[in-house]
Design goal:
alpha+beta, three-stranded antiparallel beta sheet, 5 helices, about 55% helix, globular
Length: about 100
């Protein structure tokens, strides 16, 4: 009785946890405006620094055209390198050093 009953209970608990985790997983809302607002509200963006995002993530979340429009409307600059978009959150000219 010790071996059989305990194993069945353990299996049921494990299934419940796994099933619950799948059902209870948070669903991230697809809200491009929220995504943009969070990106440009970051400390780095607000202080004129650099913000970078993976290109695949940008394509999936808001689309690169939307990001480009937002960057231009703020007078910022965007570079592409190593599978990432790098946004320089400072208006005005920039100079490539090397």
């Amino acid at each position: 009785m010790e071996g059989g009953g305990g194993g069945a209970l353990k299996g049921a608990l494990t299934e419940g946890r796994q099933g619950g985790a799948m059902r209870d997983a948070p669903i991230r809302p697809h809200d491009p405006d929220l995504w943009i607002n969070q990106m440009f509200a970051s400390q780095s963006a607000r202080s004129g620094g650099v913000v970078r995002r993976k290109i695949d993530w940008v394509d999936r979340e808001i689309g690169r055209e939307r990001l480009l429009t937002e960057v231009r409307s703020r007078g910022f600059h965007m570079l592409e390198a190593g599978g990432q978009f790098i946004v320089v959150c400072a208006p005005g000219p920039i100079r490539m050093v090397c």
